[in-house]
Automatic annotation (TrEMBL):
SUPFAM superfamilies: SH3-domain. This is SH3 domain-containing protein. It comes from Rotaria magnacalcarata. Pfam families: SH3_9 (PF14604). Keywords: SH3 domain. Signal peptide: none annotated.
Length: 59
């Protein structure tokens, strides 16, 4: 999971800081790229931020 892509959210995740995304099962995340270890960043519902890699699968 290291290139730009689109991901489908498999599990809900509530953002714990201002640079993270709150994502919900079934959401689509676009323009996602690798961030720090275990995290990706991308856009979901008009907001851009980080989200945990293990909560999503490649679309």
């Amino acid at each position: 999971l290291s290139s730009v892509g689109t991901y489908i959210v498999e599990y809900d995740y509530i953002a714990k800081s201002s640079d993270e995304l709150t994502i919900r099962k079934g959401d689509l995340i676009t323009d996602a790229v690798s961030a720090e270890d275990g995290w990706l960043q991308g856009e979901c519902r008009g907001t851009f931020g980080h989200f945990p890699e293990n909560f999503v699968t490649v679309s």
